[in-house]
Amino acid sequence: MTESTTTTPARAGGKVNAGGKAGKAGKTAGRAGRTGTRQAAWLLAAVVVLALLTVASLAVGARGLSLGTVWQALTQFDPTNGDHAVVQARIPRTVLGLLAGGALGLAGAAMQGVARNLLADPGILGVNAGAALAVVTGIYVFGVSSLTGYIWFAFIGAAAAAVVVYLVASLGREGATPVKLALAGAALSAGLYSLMNVILVSSQDTLDRFRFWQAGGISGRDWSVVLPGLPFLAAGAVIVLSTGRILNGLALGDDIARGLGQRVGLARGVTALGVVLLCGSATALAGPIGFVGLVIPHAVRSLTGPDYRWILPFSLVLAPALLLAADIIGRVVLLPGEVPAGIMTALVGAPVFVWLIRRGKGAGL
Q1: Are 276 and 158 spatial neighbours (Cβ–Cβ below 8 Å)?
Q2: The CATH number of the domain where 154 resides is what?
Q3: pLDDT at res. 341
Q4: Residue 133: HSE in the Cβ half-sphere, 13 Å Cα cutoff
Q5: 59 found inside a domain
């Protein structure tokens, strides 16, 4: 009778332990839920900022327009109205800013995850330089003058540069460490841009066709420039956005990633394919715009932490916001002329790059 009604200390302790574990699990789940809700709210705020900058891109310029005029031009277009014509001309430019900015932001975030280096960026690791040299070669040797030709040469150059940087960084006992990747990319960029300049100074015709594109920007583009790049941008975005868990594993190191069941070589290859598609397309469409892929993923981490499942969508939204903001400022800062968006992003990105180096956070993630 006594045994049936008395709870033993072992059983009581087991119940207490079980209850404690359940309580901890509940608290962890609650914190995760609150974190996800907060990040979702920040992402929604970023989308709102991007929407406002999109509207501003249609309204602001050498010829400023009211929001009412912009709305009328979008909903009740009158071809005889000069203001409406200005809005229609700015639409492809704005769409290109959204596409190129999103591509560079995603590519930069993915490259930082693969290289485990906060200094990784399509410009710094030589990918943009490879694409630019390939386009110049296409113009000089093959007489390429269409965007379709630019895209294919940009893809080849971006892929070749990425492979060379990785192979050079892999030499030695430690393999492709984050620091070696950054150094190899910087050295390759300097060499490729030197070769590009050799071609440009030897051919005035090539220089005339290339110099407008070289500055990097989204002005002067129309739908004939934007539309051919859409399939490549879409494919690259789908690939990179699906690699959030992969990048989280790679950020822990190759050994831990393998222990978690990842095939590290395949993971890097898939991610690199997405990066090449994004960088090649963006560079062909808008020229070699630098620092967007560096600044945005770094800034995003202050909101999301190290989780790439959040870093990637935030970069997709905030990178085009930065590019559009740079383009808008460039339109009005030196009226009646314009400053290309690529120059404006460099003015923002270069100090951030120096700050990252001085903080000593470039060694790895």
Answers
A1: yes
A2: 1.10.3470.10
A3: 83
A4: 23
A5: no
Count of residues for the chain? 365
Residue 21 lies inside a defined structural domain of this protein: no
Q: What is the mean pLDDT of residues 270-278?
A: 88
**Count of domains in the chain?**
1
Residues with Cβ within 8 Å of 175's Cβ and at least 6 positions away in sequence, in order, are: 169
**Mean pLDDT (whole number) for 215-240:** 84
Condensed to tens digits (0 to 9), the pLDDT of residues 307-364 reads 999 999 999 999 999 999 999 998 888 877 788 888 888 887 777 767 766 665 444 4
The answer to whether residues 183 and 166 touch, using CB atoms and an 8 Å cutoff, is no
CB distance 247 to 107 below 8 Å: no
Whole-number Å distance between alpha carbons of 75 and 88? 11
When the pLDDT of each residue in the chain is averaged and rounded to a whole number, the result is 81
Contact 232, 277 (CB under 8 A): yes
CA distance 101 to 131: 17
Kindly state the tokens that stand for 324.
């559009």
Q: Where are the alpha helices (DSSP H) in the chain?
A: 2-5, 9-59, 67-75, 82-115, 127-142, 147-170, 178-202, 204-214, 223-226, 230-241, 244-251, 254-259, 264-286, 292-304, 308-332, 341-359
CA torsion, points 299, 110, 214, 229, in degrees to nearest 10?
A: -120
Domain that holds residue 226: 86-359
Within-domain flag for 222: yes
| Site of tokens 């469409």 | 285
Per-residue pLDDT for 90 more than 80? yes
pLDDT at position 6 is: 45
CA distances from 258 to 110, 173, 283 (A): 19, 20, 34
- According to the model, what pLDDT value does residue 233 have? 93
Q: Among 35-39, 65-69, 89-93, whose mean pLDDT is lowest?
A: 35-39
Amino acid at 90: R
The one-letter amino acid at 239: I
Q: Give the predicted TM-score (pTM) of the model.
A: 0.80
